[in-house]
Structure formats: C-alpha cells, structure tokens
Amino acid sequence: MRFLEKLSSRRVNALLPALVMLGACAPAAPPPTTPTPAPTTVSRAVVGGIADAPPVTDSRTALRQFADSLVSQPAFRNAHFGILIVDPTSGDTLYSRNAGKLFMPASNQKLITGAVALARLGPDYRFRTEVATVTSVRDAPALLGGTLRGDLVVTGFGDPTVSDHAQVDAMAPLHAIADSPLAHGVRRINGRVLAGADNLPGPSLGFGWAWDDLPYPYSAGVDELYFNEGFTRIIVHGGSRPGAPARAVTRPARTFPALTLDVTTVAPGSTPRPELEVESTADGLGAVVTGTIAAGDSAVLQVTFRDQTAAYLAALNEALADRGIRVDGRGTTPPDSVIAHVGSPLFVVLSPPLRDIMPLLQKPSQNQIAELLLRALGRELTGSGSADSGRAVIERQLLAWGAQPDGFVIRDGSGLSRHDYLSPETIIRVLDVMTRDPSFQVYYDALPIAGVDGTIENRMRGTPAQGNVHAKTGYIDRARSLSGYVTTANGKRLLFSILANNWTTSVREVEAVQDAIAVRLAGMTLGPTGAAGGR
C-alpha cells in the first residue's frame, strides 16, 4: 500500500527597534556523519528475550515478522501498539499496525507543536518583552536628575528563554534589562516595577494536567512574564555539627521565594541521605523546607512557582538592585487605569530566534516551551494568546496538511495532558510534510539523536541507529512513544512512529521494542522503489 500517496489525495489545497538583544543560543550542530556499519543481528537481550525472525529472502517480510514477534510477546498481551513505517520517497508503507487508531502520544505531541510553530511563525520568530513607564504627572519628564518618575511597566509575551537552561544564568536577561536604564543615567525608580497587559489569558496550566504533578517543575504553569521555566532551586546545607543551624539559598534568584527553614542537622551516617521536603506557602511567595540533613552535607530541592508574575518581577527587582538602581515601591499587577496609559516602550527585549529555541524544546522535552509556543500561535495568528486559540491554529494546520479529522485530539502543546490523542498516521503525515518545509533542517537537528544527545542519549548505542536516528520520545504513565527519522544502510531516509499505551510490564521492555525496530531500520538496505534488500 502506498500510504503517502493515498493520504495525498485527501490533502487540502491549500516595533520598535530592540535596544537590548539577548544573546542567541548556539545553533544546533549539524547531524554527525557516522560510517555505515556492517549489518548486525539484534540480540535476544535487546528485545527482551525474543529471537530474530527466521531468515527469509524478502527483508521487507522479515521486517514485518520481526516487528510482529516483538509486539506479540506475552508481556504485551494487554498492551496497545500503534506502528507506522513509511518510505517517503516511494510512498510505500513498510509496516503498519493500528496506524489509524488514537493513542496518548505523551511528548510526541511536541512534534506537532514544533512543526506548526516553525511553519506558521517561522524559524526567525522572536518573543518580545516591552519595558515602558507610566507617570501620574501629566507632561512631566519621565527622567529627572537620575530618577525615573512613575512606575516601570514590563509587558511580556511569554518569552521562555529567561532561564538557566537557555542562558546558563536566568538572571542574565534581567541584568540586560537593568543595564538599559542604567546606561541612560537612571539610579532610582520612584514608583514600582509592574506587570503589563495580560497577553496570555486563560489558565496557566494545561487542560487535564494531573493535580499531583503540579509541585514538580515539569508541570509548572506558564504566563506572559516567565522566569526560569517556572521553578526555583533550593540548596540546603547542613550545619557544621549535629544540632547546628542549617542554611539554604535559592537560585537563580537569591531573593525569591522567601525561605522558611525547619531543618535539623544530624550526625553523619544517622540517615542514608537528606530527608527533606519543600512546600510553597499559601500566598505563593514563599517556600517552607522541613526535615533532616547530615552535618556538612548538602542537597538541592526544586519547587515550582505558584505565581509566575511575582517570581519574574522579584527577579527583575533583584537585577535592578544588583546594578545599583533603587526601586521605591513594590507591586505586581497595576490597575487597568495604569495599563490604559502605558506609553510607547522605552525599549524592547527580543528572545533568541525560534531556530535556537527548538533544540531547547525537543532535545530535553521541555514542557513549558511547548505550552508557550501553543499560546504564541494563538496570539500571532488569531489575536488571542489563550491555549484554546493555539489549539485551534494547530487543528486547522493539521487538516491543511492532509491529516484525517478523526486522527487527532489536541488539548495542550506539550503532551502532558492525558486528553491528547494522535494516530501514527497523523504523526507520519507531519514528519513527511516537514521534510519539504524550508525549515526542515532546523526541525530535524532539534530532535534528540540516538546515542548522542537529548532523551535518547543513552539508547541504541553501539548500533547502526547511533548518530543516525533523530526521534522524539514521549512518556507519561502507561504511554511511551518514539517517532522520527532513520536513515537506512544505503542512505534512504524513512519515517517511523511507534506508540505504545496501556501496558503493565516495565517501561524498559517497551523501549526495547522501539529501539530494536529503529536499529533494524537503520541496518536495512532499500532499493529505489522501496523494495527491501540485504538484511
């Protein structure tokens, strides 16, 4: 069956200059060139005790028997697998199992979000942050004798790169903001530093996210002013001797959240590891650390911000203080009357371009970048920065690309929701469309590379797939995914999607099936029409 040709018949025909520019992240390295290894046999250990299929002359038949034998193991009696492997050049389907069925994709959802973002926003798209001032005195000069009169208003649009992950030091972009008024002689702000307009309205969390995930950084909410991917690190140090006071600091900001310690220093060896817990305070502005830690020991805790705007403004106030700029007032959101009279921006901060953000999204599978891209799609293409608006943009784009209307359910950008559903057909459709997009190399390079980096850095090492497979993983409870691109032994690029749901065996056994299939594809030889030859 020529899968791509069949689906193709259903295809729908389809500022002010920045005074502060954040340093762009280094572009992703070109894919490594790996010498084509000699064909190898997948061992019993790799596939969880199942031997290779019996030798046959037709390697395409051998691939089918091999994949069937893997997913038919007794351990997967209750599991659901959806698999589709396609040669996009010939349009041939090399293997298909439940390819039109819906599966929870987990972070394979980011394949969709990233593709639509690159196609609709473009690889040079940058997030904006605008800094303006409001004075209560009509026609009064904003700057007088080194004092900025009135409030400083910061209007965000969801820049996800004010983080240690993107910048090495999340405070660096905020220090850059502080440097601009400093360069113009500002030494004091006699008002407050406030948040501007609500450019990303609606819930900060994704639809259907599990409530018991919310304390963890991977489940942090998002907002238009966003600091360090929504969480802080708390470094706790035990006292010098049992009973001595423990101490703790927060990073990357030193002043937020406010810490309360109820930690006892105990004798070394009396506990195998620090036994510490952290909880946010009810107002979201503080954190309480409790438990025990050995004398001379240290531990790093993580806690999400309950109030993303407050976290950003606290860090910006800290950055201003670091530059010697005094801020007289404190606050978070100004009244509507102030928002209505915000003047033209004093300056605009631009994020690194989307081409440099994509690896930060895909390689570590960063949920919050995906959620902010979802909202950016909504804002830029519909005028509303809500998640629902972004969802509508993605749904329309999937239909325009020829995906079947019953082949997807979109509820968030990251795949953290258990209400997202994709079919392998839909994923393959997107992977195929992107091979013809001008930004394909950005998309391809941003994906994790087997045995090299990202979430498959330690998978498929020492096989033909190492340095070859570019694929996105996905994992939430009972859902494990691997979809992307693999190059055969004779240089043909294949598209594959392997989705698994609802198993009760170990996730390692599911991964072993996915890896074994990817390794098999990397070692195959395909003729010019897609006919398999060799192994």
Overview of the molecule:
Helix content is 27%, strand content 22%. The chain is built from 13 helices and 24 strands. It has helices spanning 3-8, 59-71, 109-121, 164-167, 171-183, 308-322, 336-339, 354-362, 367-382, 387-400, 424-435, 440-446, 507-523; strands at residues 20-21, 80-87, 92-97, 128-134, 143-144, 147-148, 151-156, 188-189, 193-195, 231-237, 247-251, 258-266, 275-280, 286-294, 298-304, 326-327, 347-350, 408-409, 421-422, 470-476, 479-487, 493-501, 525-526, 532-533. A 5-stranded mixed β-sheet has the order 1-17-4-7-9. It has a 5-stranded antiparallel β-sheet with strand order 3-2-22-21-20, with helices on both faces. A 4-stranded mixed β-sheet has the order 5-6-8-16, covered by helices on one side. A hairpin with a 2-residue loop joins β20 and β21. The model is unreliable at 1-56 (pLDDT under 50).
What would the keywords be for this entry?
disordered N terminus; five-stranded antiparallel β-sheet; 24 strands; 27% helix; 535 residues; alpha+beta; five-stranded mixed β-sheet; globular
Radius of gyration: 26 Å
Strand content: 15-25%
Task: Report the principal-axis shape.
Answer: globular
Q: What structural class do the secondary elements suggest?
A: alpha+beta
Alpha carbon gap, first and last residue: 21 Å
Strand order of the largest sheet: 1-17-4-7-9
The number of distinct helices, counting runs of at least 4 residues, comes to: 13
**Helix proportion:** 25-40%
Q: Which stretches of 5+ consecutive residues score pLDDT under 50?
A: 1-56
Number of strand segments: 24
Major pleated sheet: 5 strands, mixed
Mean pLDDT: 87
